[in-house]
Amino acid sequence: MLRCLWLRLSGAASVPGPGRASSRCSLLILCVSIRLCAASLGRSPWAEYYGTKSRYEVLSGVSVPGTDWLAPANCTVLQVNALIRHGTRYPTRKNVPRMVEIHQLIREQGDVGSSLVQALAGWHMWYNERMDGNLHPLGISEMVKLAKRLSARFPALFAVQSYKEKRLKFLTSSKHRCVNSTKSFIQGLESYLNLPDQEGGQWEVNDGLMRFFDHCEKFKNLVENNNTALHQVEIFKNGPEMERIMSNMAKKLGISPSAINANMVEATFYLCTYEFILKGVISPWCDLLEEEDVEVLEYLGDLKQYWKRSYGYKINGLSSYRLFQDLFQYMDQTIEESER
Ligand SMILES: *[C@@H]1O[C@H](CO)[C@@H](O)[C@H](O)[C@H]1NC(C)=O
Ligand SMILES: *[C@@H]1O[C@H](CO)[C@@H](O)[C@H](O)[C@H]1NC(C)=O
Ligand SMILES: *[C@@H]1O[C@H](CO)[C@@H](O)[C@H](O)[C@H]1NC(C)=O
């Protein structure tokens, strides 16, 4: 889910001469989505709560402590590895029907005397299942800009010659948003290098590495296809924190609390955040939630990822073994070549 595009670059053609042989380093950069930690937008109280949906863009000018890169004295960059998530996308096929469902419920059962209900009923539902998590135009421009920032930071590696000699390698998962992110990244790079007539660059689809979780039988049995693996998430979804949100929402809408379920609450949260991310508007959907509610929903998202992808089960981490083995082998190989 998170792993998407993998970029590899190695050594510039001019290998450091023997006199500088002691100044070798190899450098590894991992880009994963970082939560927006400064409310720099100052427009919406929810701006901080996109969880894994924070945009690269928002962080591009922000200095995140510990991530400023300074080359150690006399070191030469030999290689850059970047593991990059796809750019901003539309909602997925799973989430759109839930959005439609809460919208319809409000239109049919909401208190017509309420101005909030009127605003929501009059809101145009433009999300559809065909969007299916596709890359949004904003995602394209994010990838282009990311490519330019990385190139500017490592000019020795992101060079015309390296590119032409195919020493820049791009691996992607087969997900269309990932393939398109990869294309956009390459486009950004070509434009930065002033290579407008290239054929759109070369990339390789490798789900064995990039979607390692789909290729690990033990992970699939123990977690992915196991109905009880997310047991704690279910408990939280049915717990008092979620109950309180549903009853507040019901009160604001003049609807019976029993008509609202946890999936609709999540869909409301997504509607608020997608409208803000994709269109830059604070929609009336945001008014259905209080800041406290949004914290609960972000926690719910974290809890799910904790059990499904992260520390909850040991196999979640072990399933990425192949990817990291490959990555470290590649680093070792680059160091060896440089030493030769
Ligand atoms: C870096 O290289 C210069 C010139 O070769 C040398 O004078 C200096 O001591 C080196 N610095 C470090 C930290 O190795
Ligand atoms: C991917 O890009 C192609 C070509 O630019 C476009 O036709 C297609 O709709 C895009 N697909 C997605 C899923 O974004
Ligand atoms: C499913 O997950 C639960 C909770 O971790 C575990 O006890 C159970 O053994 C798993 N089932 C299978 C078939 O692996």
TrEMBL record:
GO terms for cellular component: membrane. Its EC number is 3.1.3.62, 3.1.3.80. Transmembrane segments: none annotated. GO terms for molecular function: acid phosphatase activity; bisphosphoglycerate 3-phosphatase activity; inositol phosphate phosphatase activity. The keyword Repressor does not apply. It catalyses: 1D-myo-inositol 1,2,4,5,6-pentakisphosphate + H2O = 1D-myo-inositol 1,2,5,6-tetrakisphosphate + phosphate; (2R)-2,3-bisphosphoglycerate + H2O = (2R)-2-phosphoglycerate + phosphate; 1D-myo-inositol hexakisphosphate + H2O = 1D-myo-inositol 1,2,4,5,6-pentakisphosphate + phosphate; 1D-myo-inositol 1,2,5,6-tetrakisphosphate + H2O = 1D-myo-inositol 1,2,6-trisphosphate + phosphate. Pfam families: His_Phos_2 (PF00328). SUPFAM superfamilies: Phosphoglycerate mutase-like. Keywords: Hydrolase, Membrane, Signal. It is found in: Membrane. PROSITE patterns: HIS_ACID_PHOSPHAT_1. Residues 1-39 form the signal peptide. The keyword Protein biosynthesis does not apply. It is an enzyme of class 3 (hydrolase). Belongs to the histidine acid phosphatase family. MINPP1 subfamily. This is Multiple inositol polyphosphate phosphatase 1. It comes from Scyliorhinus torazame (Cloudy catshark).
